[in-house]
Amino acid sequence: MDLHRNGTNDSCPSSCGPLTDYCIPDYVLKPDSEPVIVDNAPSCPVVVFINSRSGGQLGSGLIKTYRELLNEAQVFDLSEEAPDKVLHRLYCNFEKLKSNGDLLAIQIQKSLRLIVAGGDGTASWLLGVVSDLKLSHPPPVATVPLGTGNNLPFSFGWGKRNPATDQAAVKSFLGQVKGAREMNIDSWHIIMRMRIPQEGPCDPIAPLDLPHSLHAFHRVSDCDSLNVEGYHTFRGGFWNYFSMGMDAQVSYEFHSERKRNPEKFKNQLTNQSTYAKLGLKQGWFAASLTHPSSRNIAQLAKVKIMKRPGGLWEELKIPRSIRSIICLNLPSFSGGLNPWGTPGTRKVQDRDLTAPYVDDGLIEVVGFRDAWHGLVLLAPNGHGTRLAQAHRIRFEFHKGAAEHTFMRIDGEPWKQPLPKEDDTVVVEISHLRQVAMLANDPCKSKSVNDPSSPSCHGHDDDESNSLEDEDEWEDGRKKFGAAATFKIPDEVDIAHLS
Description:
The protein contains 13 helices and 17 strands. By secondary structure, the chain is α+β, with helices and mostly antiparallel strands. The strands form three sheets. Strands 6-7-5-17-14-9-10 form a seven-stranded antiparallel sheet. Helix 5 links the parallel strand 3 and strand 4. It starts with 25 loop residues before the first helix and ends in a 59-residue tail after the last strand. Phosphorylates the second messenger diacylglycerol (DAG) to generate phosphatidic acid (PA), another important signaling molecule. PA is required for plant development and responses to abiotic stress and pathogen attack.
């Protein structure tokens, strides 16, 4: 294949040696650049997105190292340029070069891989943008753990500890990206609608100034098909989880504190320690004494599920003691814990529960009473209260049950005011589409199509740490800019939300 181009020298630094496997020449990245001579197409071309504000000072250090090893033009600081603009420009240039018969551009587009370094919110932001491109073969994404929880990287074998930033560490990571396999994961659309209150706001309240990576919700425009007169409608989506209740409240306080005193949050260990202290302060470890029962999930909202596409809505019984509910897509929550586990044979037969596959069109719904309940996840086969697996889930808030609640999507929390005068507030989650991730071994996430994925056999008794019978416990600026990814699909009937 002739990949020669006339013009200047290759823009990859000569010192990078074998890293030419990953380098992309300037003229592919920059539409107005002069063509270069390239003897061979890079075997694993990458575009790197790094949130310099993540991981204390690590983000800036990673940017420096990646730019030393690769073409500077293929490494982007997300605090300076949004990924949607970068990828739109890149793919427009791909089409232009391909129309001119450029074989190198064709090869690079075919084998392109993306790397994103940041927290879960940053990774979710990029996944949404990639999904928006609606390409026949979208580039798969590898995630560098650079946040506090790092659930997305951990789910796909990239670890959960913040990485080293030296050249040897970055070269090692690039080698893993080159050898990684692709795995599709489900994405989830979420819509929230409520009647315009007579007084007070109903917009989601961010913990001070949340970064623009938050794609949790945005208000739909007046011309949007989802807009209903007299109502406020928000929509967004997620890849890992949506949670509501006390866990989101603790997360909200953590993000607020970090925004007020950023100098105190310079490394992952300090962040995790502060998170635990705030959990104590907010009463998450003594929720039965400090948490208003009116904010327990069953007292706050009616929950309905649709188990399969096109099925009927049915009410989900939520034990009265549940204070947090998590709708989980990946097997990692709160820094790598798996709230769902692998149901035993009896659960499969009695309740139609399966292992948590990331591409089966089902979301796992798990409940927790308090942080002590969460500690059961540290035990072998431990898990939360398994409530359901569903294709769609709907929360209908009770009239005047509370002034507000706390919600969280992929690590990004907010405080949600609730109107007092009616019960029209609805949050609905539905399956949307899929996107490709890069998986490294050992990978926690499992595909329904992977024969090595866990079965339910051999787990006949996973109940020893579950405390599943809740009856035992009854007595005791771009501020919310959403990726277009999470627009509701045409085939979904949302008439009932009106």
